[in-house]
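Ticket #4471: structure export looks truncated?
Reporter: QA, pipeline team
Priority: medium

Steps to reproduce: submit the single chain below to the structure queue and open the exported record.
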Amino acid sequence: MSAPKYSAEFKEQVVLEIVQKSRPIAEVARSYGPVAQTVGNRVARWRKEHPDLSTDAMTAEEHAEIKRLKAELREARMENEFLKKAAAFFAQESG
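Actual output as written to the record:
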């Protein structure tokens, strides 16, 4: 039997709950389902990758909002590039 696959968002949510709310790893792992050792490894990796953010007062909601806005910006940029290419295509046809 293989281990369940969790999305990146789920993993991040679990890690941020531990880091930002100072909840025990074992308690969070029990409530969400993954093995405590795995969650502990993810928390350690996160703290190593974000040494300046691990003590930051940013809430989980603020972090989620930033992530949502980055995704929205990425999508807007892709749409903008598509519109530029479409405008160039139609300018060539009519010109």
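Status: closed, not a bug. The export was complete when the record was re-opened. Leaving a note from the reviewer for reference: The chain is about 75% helix and 0% strand.
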